[in-house]
Please model this.
Amino acid sequence: MTLGQALCGVSGILVTPFDESGAIDPQLLAPVIDRAVAAGVDILTVNGNTGEFYGLSTSEAVTMVQSVCQLVDGRVPVVAGIGRALPDALALAHASVAAGADALMIHQPPDPFVAPRGVCDYICAIRDAAEDVPLILYLRNDGVGLDAISQMCSIESVVGVKWATPNPMVLKRAIAAAPDHIIWVGGLAEVWAPSFYAVGARGFTSGLINVWPERSVAINRSLEVGDFDQARALIETMHVFEDIRAAEQGGANVSGVKCALAMLGNDCGAARPPAAWPLGDDQQTTLKHFMIKNGLIS
Model:
């Protein structure tokens, strides 16, 4: 399977495991990765937002990409998240390429003073460090405008965009304005996938794959054959999981996944501040009912 084909499937965003002392413990991901690959997840991302990218030091992010590439061992493509201050982004790009990452996902800079042309310069600098490894843009704010998005997509080595704003009609216009070779991936998980597919996106990112990869794959396969009714029915069965993750202004995003992993007996530790940890009692009760109802735990 080519990278382009994989991007049209399920892009699983791996958590970052921590041990009891709070240090990263990548080996705890082994059963998560094995389960996801066995279920048919098409591509795995390390150092994404569900991986608490902004809660990791650059050295921790380097260790994570090195470890994940070893654990995946070529079974599916690995995408490595890149971002933060440009020197850190370049160091992480070099390390990710050396580790064997198949593509680099560039986090949209969260700096409060971002110029659209400055973002293009940022992407170009990472491109120059990436040694021809394909680049995927991660857009969480479409306020940069269609002209800037089109310019970003026209940068050599950019092959895809993970669209993570709840504006499908803006996505439609961005697709029309950008080069034809760009693959547009739904970046707001399963619940938004049908809306994004309807305007031209393919595939979607998923944190659910850490817990229930079979459901994510089934949703994607339904969308790929145009069975939107089946996809919506499958999404309805996991909607409560995403509602839990969306709580506290999205601060429970990682916490919901890690709490569910602990219930599965695959404890990957706590979520680091500023994430909401632990989940509230009501959230934990709701999550446990969800896990039991769907046969994930007894």
In short: The two ends are 36 Å apart (CA to CA). The longest strand covers residues 158-163.
